[in-house]
Amino acid sequence: MTIVRAAILGFGTVGQGVYNIVQQRREALKERLGGAELVVVKVLVRDLHRPNRVLPEHLEHPEDLLTDDIDEVFRAGVHVVFEATVGEEPAFTYLRRAVVEHGCSVITANKVMFARYGAVLQELAAACVPTPAASPATRLYVGFEATVAAGVPIIKTLQNMCYVQDVRRIEGIVNGTSNYVLTELREHPEKTFDAVVRQAQELGYAEADPTSDVSGQDAFMKLLVMIGIAFGRQPDRATIPVTGIDTLTPEMLSDARAKGLRYRHVVSAAVESGASPAGLTCAVGPMLLGPEHPLYHMDGTTSAVTVWTGYLDAITISGPGAGMYPTASAMLEDYAVWMAAFGRSRAAPA
Amino acid sequence: MTIVRAAILGFGTVGQGVYNIVQQRREALKERLGGAELVVVKVLVRDLHRPNRVLPEHLEHPEDLLTDDIDEVFRAGVHVVFEATVGEEPAFTYLRRAVVEHGCSVITANKVMFARYGAVLQELAAACVPTPAASPATRLYVGFEATVAAGVPIIKTLQNMCYVQDVRRIEGIVNGTSNYVLTELREHPEKTFDAVVRQAQELGYAEADPTSDVSGQDAFMKLLVMIGIAFGRQPDRATIPVTGIDTLTPEMLSDARAKGLRYRHVVSAAVESGASPAGLTCAVGPMLLGPEHPLYHMDGTTSAVTVWTGYLDAITISGPGAGMYPTASAMLEDYAVWMAAFGRSRAAPA
């Protein structure tokens, strides 16, 4: 029987979601992945002695599982690392070490880290060959579905499309907080921007500090990750205009309402026709859409991405773009797809 | 260098689409699949001497490529078969022989055949181990993305989800003709059902004989394929009520309009809560939807499927569910995903 030894880096909402799903789905995953059993052997937390830490109720022997020392994680002998921390560092250093020094596959939900270092991580992983004795799989894997729109499977869809399709344009609503705020402001013109942001915080849709959401920075990171897959390169960040929903005035909103149009906060990237080599036009900001646009109807905390290609016209995928289980389950889908394709105990094809 | 030898069965719209894409994307596919080159070596047609056959302009030496003899296809030494014919037979017999007698992978767009024999084909393929000398891949593959909603990637999305998610409910608009007719009847109340069906035929959305579309049978086949993946079993066909859009009266349509509701032709399957072992409730027919339903806004020839799971709430995927290139490109995505995972010349991870 194959045991796949996992570590979780970061034990906030998403990290705990990964832990819970591994417990809840242990038997189903094993059955569907040719008998390979996923076991969490270490969880890295920032401060081992933080007071008032809330842990999953069913977590047994937390003193053996939790550590604040990355070397203790690696010494435990890990095959796959689920990374659910925030920011570029120390996440990248940890994942680079996981791949290069320990031959681990890595699965991340960290968009800020991945927007910067995703290509590097993938190159490092491609250059590593797992040693048959130590690894449950024949190839190292870098999973990042959860970095964009959580459980909405836009990353794998783009990866699969790109073998055959030339992507011409991507447009997406990828920040649930912004979309919630815009939806509320449209449906309740009497409410103020600040009141709706507070309401989003109370409902758990917005962070205590909502700057990254309302300024467009969070959406920008997700756009950069999608561009890397869809167009195989990265534009110069400094050339992309990034504006947030905080630039919209009540007058602009009431004007849109009067015309039957809707503001959505949209990230976009499109191939410039005629340019050679083909350039990209990218933008992040409020966009005024009519009812014929696939993103016009996407209300509330929904995330949605539309991709235009030569063979397909437009494909749109929508769903919950944030939250404990949508994000954590996307990470475990990455794990399962990797094991089904490259695991030494291969699953029967579905 | 690996050469992957392909045959196309059936050379109508979809078969010619596959042929064209293989020519158009030859270099890109080769580059993205570790140097493996896909070459069409035989095309099976029903009648070699059919007058007025229209062939792709760039097809060289059609006399060497075309045959009406399935044994000539197999004698050519084929690794993968793209099947784009209509009906259960002879399609199933050909694909069974391809898998069992010749160790071929098979990729199909034939929903009627696959709804009946999909599970059998997958079991046969799982039991076959390709001989290393003969095969470009380490595992036989059965691809069928194109059987449901063409280029809308609902099959792979469901397959990936099912490792981690428990699917609770599926609802889909999977017949573009029906959706077009319902959209037109809503937007133009003065038009008759027959006139709109004729209009759909003139625009190429409906077949010369539209019975299978308007009766719900086409959608029913697609539902059966989705149920097989989402719930891992097949219900008794005879127990599923199937009605078409031809059961809607002008009174029903005007009543819906007055209430702000819309009829969509919806296929659905849901786990019955409380039943043990869990039963399925399935249906095919017109459904009256309000604006909060994810399928309410899907107008025209769009296909769309919504999947509800425990971890994700609802995910919706929509796009063009029919047509030469949406269907053919889905078949080539199947090929590419198979080769990327199981090809002996593996592509670098995207």
Description of the molecule:
- 2 copies of one chain form a homodimer.
- With 350 residues, chain A is α/β, with parallel strands linked by helices.
- The first copy, chain A, is 39% helix and 20% strand.
- Chain A is built from 13 helices and 11 strands.
- In chain A, the strands form 2 sheets. In chain A, strands 3-2-1-4-5-6 form a 6-stranded parallel beta sheet, with helices on both faces. In chain A, strands 9-8-7-10-11 form a 5-stranded antiparallel beta sheet.
- In chain A, β5, α6 and β6 form a beta-alpha-beta unit.
- In chain A, 51% of the residues are buried.
- The mean pLDDT of chain A is 93.
- The interface between A and B is large, with 53 and 53 residues.
Tell me roughly what share of residues is in helical segments of chain A. Answer: 25-40%
Question: What is the global morphology of chain A?
Answer: globular
Rg of chain A, Å, rounded:
21 Å
The topology string of helices and strands of chain A comes to EHHEHEHEHEHEHEHHHHHEEEEH
Largest sheet of chain A: 6 strands, parallel
Taking the alpha carbons of the first and last residues of chain A, their distance comes to 21 Å
How many helical stretches of chain A? Answer: 13
Rounded average pLDDT of chain A: 93
What kind of assembly state do the chains in view correspond to? homodimer
Secondary-structure-based class of chain A equals: alpha/beta
Question: What is the strand tally of chain A?
Answer: 11
Query: pLDDT below 50 for ≥5 consecutive residues: which ranges of chain A?
Result: none
Strand order of the largest sheet of chain A: 3-2-1-4-5-6
Biggest interface between chains: A-B, 53 and 53 residues
Residues in β-strands, percent of chain A: 15-25%
